[in-house]
Amino acid sequence: MSSSSEPKTIDTLLREHRHFAPPQDFVAQANTSDPTIYEQADANPETWWASWAEKLEWMKPWEQISDWSNAPYAKWFLGGKLNASVQCLDGHVAAGHGARVAYYWEGEPGDARTITYQEMLDGVCRTANALKELNIQKGDRVTLYMPMVPELAMAVLACTRIGAIFSVVFAGFSSTSLKDRIQDQEARLVICADGCWRRGKLLDLKTVVNEAIEACPSVEKVMIWQRGKGITSSAPATDRDVDWDEVVDRQSSQCAPAEQDAEDPLFILYTSGTTGKPKGILHTTGGYMTGVYATTNLVFDLKTETDVYWCTADIGWITGHSYIVFGPMANGVTQVMYEGAPNHPGPDRFWEICAKYGVTIFYTAPTAIRAFMKWGDEHPATHDLSSLRLLGTVGEPINPEAWVWYLHHIGGGRCPIVDTWWQTETGGIMITPLPGITTTVPGSATTPFPGISAKLLDEDGNEVEGANGGYLVLDRPWPHMLRGIWGDNERFEETYWSRFPGKYFPGDGAKRDEKGFLWVLGRVDDVMNVSGHRLSTMEIESALVDHEAVAEAAVIGVNHELKGQAPVGFVILRSGFEASDALADDLRKHVGTLIGGLARPEAVHFTPELPKTRSGKIMRRLLRDVAEGKTIGDTTTLADPGVLDGLRSEYEQREG
Hints:
Elements: H1 10-16, H2 24-29, H3 37-43, H4 45-53, E1 64-67, E2 75-78, E3 81-82, H5 84-97, E4 101-106, E5 112-116, H6 117-133, E6 141-145, H7 150-162, E7 165-168, H8 175-185, E8 189-193, E9 195-198, E10 201-204, H9 206-213, E11 221-225, E12 241-243, H10 244-249, E13 260-261, E14 265-271, E15 279-284, H11 285-299, E16 308-311, H12 318-331, E17 334-338, H13 349-357, E18 361-364, H14 366-375, H15 378-381, E19 390-393, H16 400-410, E20 417-419, E21 454-457, E22 469-474, E23 484-485, H17 489-497, E24 508-512, E25 518-523, E26 527-530, E27 533-536, H18 537-545, E28 550-560, E29 564-573, H19 581-594, E30 603-606, H20 620-627, H21 643-655
Parallel strand pairs: 4-17, 6-7, 6-8, 8-11, 11-12, 16-17, 16-18, 18-19, 19-20, 29-30
Antiparallel strand pairs: 1-2, 3-13, 4-5, 9-10, 14-15, 15-23, 21-22, 22-24, 24-25, 26-27, 28-29
Helix pairs in contact: 1-16, 3-4, 4-11, 5-6, 5-7, 5-12, 6-7, 8-9, 11-12, 14-16, 20-21
């Protein structure tokens, strides 16, 4: 049960938790509690990263730690040979931990499975041998389109076992999105499920695949894992179809791992650009494995003998790649994997699962946390969450109000929170507290991970010192950084390296406070220029959510005759509150009180939903399209494209 005896307002919680020092009992057992770790890493970053690479199992040692002579194309652990699946499986089994649970899997309808590391290794080897039977070879691309089931992790690791390059496409994308990705990588094999469960419905995935591959001549075979057991898909079989069970079950559980060069491609993962086709982000083997192994170990303070770790992301996103498959498995920890929606059959589903499996580390998105707030404090309070010892957030900056709610209602006021900033392109966590060291501040990702260097620059590329804001850049290479955009080096150089030559620019702005902590403000195209003053959408959103009526908010800048730009808010209300002109005025005044008159929204619009990607990020670009009456741009990454129709109708009604 929650440790709270009386309900507290967000304002009260914020006053109580302006700073949160890690509890002494946590510090005493932390993987690292020595703050000099930062100085040691900065003194010689190459040596620091090599010390983590040495913890992996190499088939051949590297000859050179790194090479930045052909910037921005980095190389790490040159000459070294290894295999990613060995790091995740073989080493743990050889060490006598084969019986340790790898995944507690929970299906949305309530079916459950427990899979050990030995069983994962056997399954990966059988699947890898099946890929060989289908004539998949080193360097071939394999597209995966599957729900959150253990077989997806097996398929990922089976590809790495034989040196094939895998690319996971989230099993919610349209056939057009799937087709575009298959075509871009010229995949020879698609591995899919016939269907998946979502909010009580069994969704047909095979039909989507059939539609996609009609225009994909590179695809030779489609291997289908039966989630619906024949009742999901009415899609007709094609001459390319192969049944997973038939081809996998007959294989040997022994498969020697391919020897991969440290710089051999590991996977391609597509991420949306503001315009144009999705970018195929390329990650390689040795540096990526080093980065995710180190960050998982230190950021989440993993205790492999006792922890039960749950990252609620989907493997279709980079969070799932790095912090469901490769990072946690390389560390040998027990995980929870869940197939379905967080509010099915009820809004307490996540807390029910946490209590059932004794989850100790919980990693989720701020968007989800704000949804939990909206659904009500009573839902986590009805479950025993005392097993939790560490909480994490990922995907976007978290507003302080959601941070303290998370601490109080999920962590019982005792669990450190690691607020992590990173991207698909960075491969792993870049800015984060270390839970045994950092005194955290709600809303701040705090400091770069040891061995990472982040700076703030002004418009002219000059470094910004002290408590100030600027463009966030990473000014030296790191092992798990992207190695390019698949088939498009020119786009890679232009997108990430042209704004500030020699420095990686992620597109985000940030501010530094008096303590030296970094506050990531989101993309610089989410910064408004109001009457000559730069205002962050996140700061105004945070002020709106500070109001007791607001569950979630998004803010955009619209053109204004006098101010240049003016903020406009889109708000989801908490239960018990009704939209009205009076409430809109009150919210505008509330922002003005907290930030200042310049930040007061020109208008506040109420909406039941916001346009979000399936990873939970608000698509402010589409809100601007609505507000400015433009043709709606690309919506392929939206979780629910229908949200935009309601938004436009409501906006036009209020504006009219």
